[in-house]
Specification:
2 domains, OB fold (Dihydrolipoamide Acetyltransferase, E2P), alpha+beta, 26% strand
Length: 144
């Protein structure tokens, strides 16, 4: 079984709008139809879209009609895996072990473990909008 790893994804685009007040630019992708075959399409903000608004550090560098290149990277992928799987497993095992060693009751250990899992995933759900999106684009002027 092979695992496909994506380091960078590059899109060619044209700037269609610049908003210096919001610090964003709007671009139209040249080949947005190709997104369906891309392995990162599920987490990509540009997936299948014809135009995308992106935050940039200095939007005044860009002009309407200018060709740009969008490079996407998996910035938060490992952090998301840690938050969604590794930390809950550690919390579950530690809680169940601690309760079992403290009182010797397996039912109490299971109940405590389930309680910790419910609490942990409730916290993840509550802060879902505070956790940065795991896939972002870097915008640079195209050499084309």
């Amino acid at each position: 079984m092979t695992t496909e790893t994506i380091e960078n994804i590059t899109h060619e685009a044209t700037v269609t709008g610049v908003d210096t007040a919001k610090g964003t630019i709007t671009v139209t992708l040249h080949h947005s139809d190709d997104c369906g075959s891309c392995p990162a399409s599920r987490i990509c903000s540009a997936s299948g879209a014809k135009s995308v608004t992106l935050p940039v550090a200095r939007p005044q560098r860009f002009r309407k009609g200018e060709k740009v290149e969008l490079t996407g990277t998996e910035r938060m992928h490992h952090k998301a895996i840690m938050r969604a799987t590794v930390y809950p497993c550690i919390a579950l095992v530690a809680t169940m072990t601690g309760i079992y060693l403290a009182c010797g009751d397996q039912f109490a250990a299971v109940a405590g473990g389930l309680g910790v899992m419910v609490f942990f995933f409730a916290m993840l759900y509550a802060f879902r909008n505070k956790i940065p999106h795991e896939f972002g684009f870097e915008v640079r002027k195209s050499d084309l």
